Amino acid sequence: MKKIFIFLALTASLLYSAQNEQYKIPKQDLFFTFDTQIGFNLADILRKKETFSDENPVLEKTYFTYGFSAYLGYNFVARFSFATGLKYNYIVNDIHPIYWVFQPRYYFNVDSDEPVYLGLYYGKKVNKTTIEQANIFGVNAGVFHPISSFSNLSFGGFLELHSLNSDPSWFLGVNFGINIFTGANNY
Hints:
The protein is mainly β.
């Protein structure tokens, strides 16, 4: 019973804090995000040439990647949102995984003109490529820049781990995106 009361108290404090209009934190409500990214393959840059070809002959050596993603999400608590969608990545010539991705985001400094976000994501490959299994784990962080009352631009960086047939590849790069949301005059 004590655990239930603690859970309810924490939930109520998240949902009902700062409800005074003067201090109320804005929310995006339902939002759509489209972003592009480019990055470098840290694993191939740091890996020795002779061990790369012996471990997995399907994968070629590559130094950069690019990708696109489209997410649909909901900002149900002022500083937290959850999104899901598709993410495409070019890795090498025959490997173009499309992932179904789940992404929670946490927002900092939301009462300023340019709030900051931190997101974690996980995805599983949904298309057929030369690799049988692929997963993606990642973290991204960036800043929003408002362009209208219903949209903003996002600039940030990311670090991703692609597990391609159990062969890990780390990617580090930058992303640029546009967000369209239903809650007007928000971040």
